[in-house]
């Protein structure tokens, strides 16, 4: 639902058929309140106002753990990738922003009581557009906000994914060089 120019959404914890290319085309260039509330309407409105006012605009995505903030940001990036003027540089920007996300999540996500893949960090994503409205650059800044998880987890929660992934998939020589053993039960930080 909308509250003024704010969109309040709920994470259904499953893929819904509301984030298709057809939906992107439906919301492209439409007045804000003309169609039912949608993430694409927010993305399109911010883009069109930026282009008409030649001014910076932002979309703030906020919510508690498991609310779907990371998924919402990915959907917005996908919307811009499909609806903005396409250039070779757009493909590069889109690929870097979208493909870097799994790497960032491995280092900054962990299992919590509410979500098996919860971001434990803050993220600032920036997309730069030229005067024609074509994306020409972008970057992501991540802020690790839960460093205490490294040395302590609540009952039923886990450390950051990357440590388990390293133990499971790291080659034997690498683990030996790092002084690590494959069994996560051998680490006090993981079994408290």
From TrEMBL:
Residues of the Myosin motor domain: 1-192
Gene Ontology cellular-component terms listed: cytoplasm; microvillus; myosin complex; plasma membrane
InterPro entries: Kinesin_motor_dom_sf, Myosin_head_motor_dom-like, P-loop_NTPase
Gene: Myo1h_0
PANTHER family xref list: MYOSIN, UNCONVENTIONAL MYOSIN-IH
A Gene Ontology BP annotation from the UniProt entry: actin filament organization
Protein name: MYO1H protein
Keyword ATP-binding: yes
């Amino acid at each position: 639902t909308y509250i003024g120019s704010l969109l309040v959404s709920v994470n259904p914890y499953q893929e819904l058929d509301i984030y298709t290319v057809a939906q992107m085309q439906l919301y492209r260039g439409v007045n804000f309140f003309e169609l039912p509330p949608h993430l694409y309407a927010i993305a399109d409105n911010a883009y069109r106002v930026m282009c008409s006012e030649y001014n910076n605009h932002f979309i703030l995505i906020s919510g508690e753990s498991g609310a779907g903030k990371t998924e919402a940001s990915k959907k917005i990036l996908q919307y811009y990738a499909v609806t903005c003027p396409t250039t070779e540089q757009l493909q590069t920007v889109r690929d870097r922003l979208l493909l870097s996300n799994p790497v960032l999540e491995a280092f900054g996500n962990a299992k919590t009581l509410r979500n098996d893949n919860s971001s434990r960090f803050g993220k600032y994503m920036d997309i730069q557009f030229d005067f024609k409205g074509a994306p020409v650059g972008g970057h992501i800044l991540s802020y690790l906000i839960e460093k205490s998880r490294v040395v302590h987890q609540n009952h039923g929660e886990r450390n950051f994914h990357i440590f388990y992934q390293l133990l499971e998939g790291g080659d034997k020589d690498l683990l030996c060089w790092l002084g690590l053993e494959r069994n996560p039960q051998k680490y006090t930080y993981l079994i408290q």
